[in-house]
Amino acid sequence: MGFFDSEIVQQEAKQLFEDYQSLTQLGGSYGKFDREGKKMFIDQMEAMMDRYRIFMKRFELSEDFMAHMTVEQLRTQLGQFGMTPQQMFDQMNTTLERMKAELEKTL
Q1: Cα distances (Å, whole numbers) of residue 24 to 41, 47, 53, 89
Q2: pLDDT of residue 107
């Protein structure tokens, strides 16, 4: 059975994508959130990024050809912006850390 034939993988990918879309859309209103809302948003983004990191690692560790092609496709797409997947995760983490620091200033 291929990596993408797994119902668990399909469900996880679908949920991850939907969660990402929802959080991205919600992020457009971040400036209007109260302190607790901002904290919840940051926590949810961190949790989603952790899930995404784990999901991508599963792709990398898989022996499935299509899983490897997916990783290469991501690398190629990010490479067009001069970035690696690790740099993408690092940049997102830096952004979330800045958001947390800004939130702490508003105490």
Answers
A1: 10, 14, 17, 16
A2: 65
Q: What's CA 88's distance to the chain center, in Å? A: 9
Using an 8 Å Cβ cutoff, are 3 and 66 in contact? yes
The two tokens of residue 59 are: 């792709």
The residue length of the chain stands at: 107
Domain ranges of the chain: 33-107
Is the predicted pLDDT of residue 49 greater than 80, yes or no? Answer: yes
Distance CA 71, CA 106 (A): 40
pTM: 0.83
H or E segment at 66? helix 65-79
